[in-house]
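Shift notes (night). Ran Bet v I/Major latex protein domain-containing protein while the centrifuge was going.
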Amino acid sequence: MGVKGKLIVSLEVKCGGHSVHDIYNTNSHHLPNISPSRVKHFEIHEAEKGKIGSIASWKYYEDGKEMFAKTVIEAIDPQKNSTTWNAIEGNLLDLYNSFNVITSFEHQWITYALVYEKKTEDTPEPIAFLDFFIGVIKDIEGHLLKN
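Came back to this:
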């Protein structure tokens, strides 16, 4: 059994957390246009986007390298505007036995929690992946404030 970890970041946004939540849950296909330096490709494979059981693949850039992830939405809490994604394929699973991303959006705040289990004690913390999310949020905020 690997070492379990959790990283959490909360960001204040001027455009409102609900607007960012809408981009993530119903307009995810726009992310490659909104954040082209971070998100190369997004595609829904199964189920409806933004619904439990929805499977999507992402090609994204982390530390300048192209990465791949396939995720499934495990849970949605409409009261907290929260969604939980689970990585089911991709680069993250090369280093981690399990990897979940939990997002919540409220008023002017967005919170990301990365919950993971490292394959070995020497596996690094996923700081670069957290930085990826922070950059995407800033890109979305800039896009929403501009439009």
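The two ends are 47 Å apart (CA to CA). The CA atoms of residues 37 and 61 lie 7 Å apart.
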